[in-house]
Amino acid sequence: MLGSMVTLDGKPASAEDLLPLALINLGHFTSMRVDADGTIRGLSLHMERLVRDCKAVWGADLDTERVRDYVRQGLEGQTRPCTVRVTIYDPKVDMGHPADADQPRIMVSVRSAGVMPPEPLRAMSVPYERDLPEVKHVGLFGALHARRAAQLNGFGDALFVGRDGLVSEGGTWNVGFVDGEGTVVWPQAPVLPGVTMALLQQHAEHRITTVTLEQAKGMAAAFATNTSIGVRSLAAIDDTELPVEHPVLSQLRDTYLSIPGEAL
User: Fold this and answer.
1) Residue from 56, 86, 42 nearest 68 by CA
2) How does residue 175 score in pLDDT terms, banded at 50, 70 and 90?
3) β 184-187/206-209 pair status
4) How many whole angstroms separate alpha carbon 195 and alpha carbon 54?
5) Which tens digit of pLDDT belongs to each residue from 44-91?
6) Dihedral angle over CA of 222, 224, 230, 235, nearest 10
7) Which of 67, 131, 204, 228 is exposed most, by the fewest CB atoms within 10 A?
8) How far apart are CA 108 and CA 84, in angstroms?
9) For 208-239, how does the pLDDT look when each residue is reduced to its tens digit (9 = 90+)?
10) Residue 63, C-beta contacts closer than 8 angstroms, at least 6 positions apart
11) Band of pLDDT at residue 1, cut at 50, 70 and 90
């Protein structure tokens, strides 16, 4: 069974602890899929992200050994596979003086993991650029507002297009493409440096280049990646249908699943 306990620095978090995060929403996080054997693909990259983002958001160092200890504790008795989220924030943050908050703490929460890969996704293009796209921060209003708009129009999620007309990323995922020659293409744009994307880039040939919305719709295939979904086919971008089965997509899924997990 999956428990619902949320911990802050290893102790049960109170409503008072969580209220600043809910009302002020300043912080950053990473989400990691824990496989049945207890390992996590890209664990080192997740830790590097937390350290990098903690410095960017809070100007503070982060002890990743403490993070690992709290995650181990949070996973005790949990059914696997599951997804564990580590959120770094300061409960003492004040809306009027956020610069005074410089003692970030470590929140750990666990939820069930979905089937991987999930059903193909239909995406609607939305003009949007995330704040500080290089940071995985908790400011999700814009992304979720775009996702809601896409879903109200019959799509599953939003695909972001910048003011320059270039495709960047999805609501909570990186996007990749397969061109006519079978080469994997990642958009050159301000995007979150996703862990799943980074792992695939380490293990599969690719190129990184700018991709316009028109070019995206002309690709041989497209896919979404993040730690929860692995490699998920895009079935459509707007009214343009895309093939959900492609040899390169199958290779990418196999490549990702063959990457060994790291022990906590």
Assistant:
1) 86
2) very high
3) parallel
4) 17
5) 999 999 999 999 999 999 999 999 999 999 999 999 999 999 999 999
6) -60
7) 131
8) 7
9) 999 999 999 999 999 999 998 999 999 999 99
10) none
11) very low
User: What tokens were used for 147?
Assistant: 């996702």
Q: CB–CB of 86/106 below 8 Å?
A: yes
With contact defined as beta carbons under 8 Å apart, do 159 and 123 qualify? yes
| CA distances (Å), origin 105, targets 24, 29, 64, 90, 134 | 15, 11, 12, 6, 21
Q: Return the structure tokens found at 225.
A: 């990646």
Q: How far is the first Cα of the chain from the last one, in angstroms, to the nearest whole number?
A: 21
Q: Is residue 25 classed exposed, middle or buried when 0-12, 13-18 and 19+ CB atoms within 10 A define those classes?
A: middle
